[in-house]
Amino acid sequence: MAKIVLAGRADCAHYAKAELLADTLHRSLPNFRVHKISILPDEWKEWLEATCKRNGWKHEESPLIWRELVAQGGKGMLLGGYSDFLEHCQDYYNITSDMPTDVMLSVAAENLETKTNLIVEEQHRLSLIKPLHIWISSALNPACHFLIPNLISAELFPHISAISLHLLDLGRNEEELQQLRMETEDLALHLLHQVTVHADLEQAFREADVILLLDECWYDGAKDEDEDEEEKKKRTVKAISDKYGQYGQLIDARANREVKVIVSGDSFVHLRCSLLLDSARRIDSHQFVTTATQLENEARAVIANKLKVKTSDVANVLVWGNINGSFYVDLQRAKVFNYDGAIKGPAFFSQPIEKILFERKWLETDFQDLVRCRRAAVASKTCRAAAMSLANGIVTVLKAWNGICGPDEVFSMAVLCTGYYDLPDGIVLSVPVTFKDGKWSVLFDVTVGEKLKERLHLSASELMQEKELGS
Q1: pLDDT tens digits for 9-27?
Q2: DSSP track, 32-81
Q3: Does the structure show a pLDDT above 90 at 300?
């Protein structure tokens, strides 16, 4: 079975004549198929160059006509322009065209009008769709393969009818981003409206409703083997300051005012969030958070192993301070369900963990160290970052932020702590929060003793020194 593909400028008279000839062939030959591609005049040259380059053809005028062998597949066989097509039809099918010039011009004008009307109708249809715009930076991070299927979900966004996903990864091969786009489209998710890819900041964060920042690679170039750790850290912080200062300005200028910005990753998350806050002055500081949920869940897993219960049976673990530095895991509100101890109850019955675990020294030393090392231990065994738990932490925070959580659920998040616990202004630290009606608030119904205050001030000091390195 043969298929002829006709492509041409919508206002081209020779394209109109080729159309009529192809229609005549289609009516005369039952196995003859025709596919028409009408291109706007101002888009024709670029389209023609791209098509010829992709297929290894040379052609300069409208129309462009080729033949495809439907059963065999593969690239088509170039026939050429209208004259070549006419000769092909006369030689193989004994069919010719006698379209008068005035009819040819009339059909060309009608083609252009039809093409223009179709574009207007499509633009109107698209204008009626109001998708939620989600931007992911460092989209080639392995966590995205776990994150994306959960993001495009009615469970996570129950009142949204469509989602536009924008994948950003600076300085990376755009082909890799295109592969991720195709893989995302192949999921055939009902809410997915479109996927776009970006290897630069030209369109970054435009109309963003949700921004997920997963950056971990801070600068390119050869490593200096003689560079000491302090110089390496200074260079890294300077690169982060430059990048996130620019991110903040773009978010401030382009994102929606109610945008939800989540900073996540294994390094410098507090600094990154703080730099965004410094640059994005137009947007409320409550719209910027850093997830400590991954660390919180790792602490729950350590406790669960100790008590021989499931990780999900441990709740309300609090993480204070610097997630990537001197954090402290606090169990003052932590509770456990389904614990096989002296006191038992139904599934909804829970017990305070501090009344079960009497090993105070273990809780203050070994437990903290086990939590600190757990992620590195996972990475060393799997030879990759703990991508699944990172994605799960982000999804957990988004669910709570979208109102999908209980009123008594407590989460650990790094937020701007101005006025809290006598901390310096402009510090982003992990503290316990609760969510209500899509907004978070710091939980003050906790005991913050002098020792915990000292830890918080130590974390604040670390982060202030970090920020000074980049100034």
Answers
A1: 988 888 888 888 888 888 8
A2: EEEEEEEE-HHHHHHHHHHHHHHHT----SS-EEEEEETTT-SSPEEEES
A3: yes
One-letter amino acid identity for 281?
R
User: Contact at 8 Å (CB) between 35 and 4?
Assistant: yes
Residue-wise DSSP of 247-266 = HHHHHHHHS-TT-EEEE-SS
pLDDT tens, residue by residue, 398-437: 999 998 888 788 999 999 988 787 888 888 999 999 999 8
* Greatest C-alpha distance within the chain: 98
Q: CB neighbours of 8 closer than 8 A, spacing ≥ 6?
A: 14, 15, 18, 37, 38, 39, 44, 62, 63, 64
Cα–Cα distances in angstroms (integers) from residue 123 to residues 138, 211, 320, in the given order: 31, 26, 49
Chain centroid to CA 420 = 32
Give the pTM.
0.75
Q: How far apart are CA 18 and CA 34, in angstroms?
A: 11
Burial pattern 312-321, b for ≥16 Cβ within 10 A else e, equals ebbbbbbbbb
Q: Please report the sign of the dihedral spanned by the C-alpha atoms of residue 418, residue 423, residue 426, residue 431.
A: negative
Q: For 202, what's the count of Cα atoms within 13 Å in the CB-facing half-sphere? A: 6
- Return the structure tokens found at 469: 């390195």
Residues paired with residue 106 on neighbouring β-strands, in sequence order: none
Quote the tokens at residue 399.
């669910």
